[in-house]
Amino acid sequence: MITLLRLGHRLGRDSRVTTHCGLVARAFGAGRIILSGDYDKKIVDSLKGVSEQWGGDFEVEYDKQWMKIIKRFKDEGAVVVHLTMYGMNLPDKIDEIRKTCKGKDMLVIVGSQKVPGEVYHLSNYNIAVGNTPHSEISALAIFLDRFFEGKQLDKKQENGKISIIPQERGKKTVEE
Ligand SMILES: C[S@@+](CC[C@H](N)C(=O)[O-])C[C@H]1O[C@@H](n2cnc3c(N)ncnc32)[C@H](O)[C@@H]1O
Fold first, then answer.
1. Domains and CATH numbers, the chain
2. What's the per-residue H, E or C state across 7-46?
3. What is the mean pLDDT of the chain?
4. How far is the centre of ligand 1, averaged over its atoms, from the C-alpha of 114 (Å)?
5. Arithmetic mean of pLDDT, 13-42
6. Residue 4 Cβ contacting ligand 1 at under 6 Å
7. Of residues 78, 83, 26, the one with CA closest to residue 49
8. For residue 113, pLDDT beyond 90
9. 13 touches ligand 1 (CB under 6 Å)
């Protein structure tokens, strides 16, 4: 399973971006988000609500102790990938990461404000989605898409209350 660790969430300022990181994680094949930084009940509830409504077994947790989380995942054999513009560029590393992760869990880390130096040292991979600044939402989406080679888009989210019947035009949903 893939877990997203969202570091350094700031109440108010990061609300939309953190929520969108959770939405992308769920929609692009991760199974869990762990929120770190300020506790934000609204985001936890909103992401849980999306899974209840639209399905998928997506877990939402809060834990301030980000270093313990990273160490625990490593101790349990997971591969830790930190997304940072300073890292090795994604196209040069994605095949290796896919091979390394075969049969293993992965912890993907994204920051908000300045990321503590320890994260760079604890991570197995520091990966840039292009060596230039942009956004944690786009970095995460592109990383997961390249990791799954687009196959995550074919997966149906199970056990939701509502699902979409794709239309050329207009909107059609069914209650499950
Ligand atoms: C707005 S940036 C702030 C980065 C911060 N200045 C730092 O020192 O890491 C927030 C997050 O977006 C992600 N990010 C931004 N650009 C990226 C890139 N080119 N490649 C990978 N991740 C990126 C990283 O996870 C980063 O921690």
1. 2-175 (3.40.1280.10)
2. EEECCCCCHHHHHHHHHHHHHCCCCEEEEEECCCHHHHHH
3. 96
4. 9
5. 97
6. no
7. 26
8. no
9. no
